Amino acid sequence: MEVSQETQVTSIPRIGEKAPNFKAATTQGEIKFPEDYSGSWVILFSHPADFTPVCTSEFMTFASMEEQFAKANCKLVGLSVDGLYSHIAWLRTIKEKIEYKGMKNVEVKFPLIEDITMEVAKKYGMIQPGESSTKAVRAVFFIDPKGIIRTIIYYPLSLGRNFDELYRVVIALQTADAFSVATPADWRPGDDVIVPPAGSCGVAQSRMEGKEEMKCYDWFFCTKKLDKDKVLSTILKK
Ligand code: BEZ
Predict the structure, then answer these.
(1) Can you tell me which atom of ligand 1 is nearest the CA of 160?
(2) If you average pLDDT over residues 198-217, what whole number do you get?
(3) Which of 75, 148, 157, 232 is paired with 40 by a 20 to 30 Å CA distance?
(4) 137 CB under 6 A from ligand 1?
(5) Domains of the chain, earliest start first
């Protein structure tokens, strides 16, 4: 059977699968992924190209939130199909020259992978030929401390990501794990959570624990309060 070019470049890892492994050169030295991140959450994200404006605004935003993500035990790893010297020159230019939304002298300390062969980008379905066959789309993979992919978001080249949402996803995934609950639309710490119906994910124990405060509107829709401080003190490092 003949395999078309498109078929070859569009395989996409899925939620619940082990993050595909690779070794790569980065602006912070070589990394082995996901092994080097075992025990931490990690966001692996791609951007289309160095020295482009939307990507620059995104890197400045991510870099300025790095500590916030670190407090949630979450590391950041970037990737584009540019080479290491381009990455280094671009990050230096950002630090020395660019101001955006009050951010300046921004130093990007997290690793940025060079992927000139597109090997990693292709493994992660970051090359989407309908959008571009020479640049990665804006992919975001949320990977848990056991190396399992837990959420994937893709954006096209022209659309800068919402970093409040990326942070919200990390906190919501960790809250769901820690308290055996699900998080409803637009959930943020302090909002009520969903107690999953019996027979679905992560259920029974939390149903019993939260019984006194649980509100059921029908068998499939039960919520309970989950205190914001309890969420944040469980998830965030001091
Ligand atoms: C940007 O980051 O500005 C950009 C990159 C590739 C295509 C379009 C925009």
Answers:
(1) 2
(2) 62
(3) 157
(4) no
(5) 5-162 (3.40.30.10), 180-235 (3.30.1020)
Which pLDDT value is given to residue 148? Answer: 98
pLDDT value at residue 200: 59
Decide: 180 and 222 in contact? Cβ < 8 Å: no
Query: Which pLDDT does position 87 carry in this prediction?
Result: 98
Active site residue 216: no
Pairwise CA distance, residues 143 & 75, whole Å: 10
HSE-up of 215 (CA within 13 Å, CB side)? 7
Q: How far is the CA of 150 from the centre of ligand 1 (A)?
A: 27
| Catalytic-labelled residue, pool 55, 74, 201, 222 | 55
pLDDT of residue 204: 43
The 3-class secondary structure across the chain, one letter per residue, is CCCCHHHHHCCCCCCCCECCCEEEEEECEEEEECHHHCCCEEEEEECCCCCCHHHHHHHHHHHHCHHHHHHCCEEEEEEECCCHHHHHHHHHHHHHHCCECCECCCCCCCCEEECCCCHHHHHCCCCCCCCCCCCCCEEEEEECCCCEEEEEEEECCCCCCCHHHHHHHHHHHHHHHHHCCECCCCCCCCCCEEECCCCCCCCHHHHHHCHHHCEEEECCEEEECCCHHHHHHHHCCC
Q: Tens digit of pLDDT for each residue in 83-108?
A: 999 999 999 999 999 999 999 999 99
Token pair of 64 as six digits: 């300025």
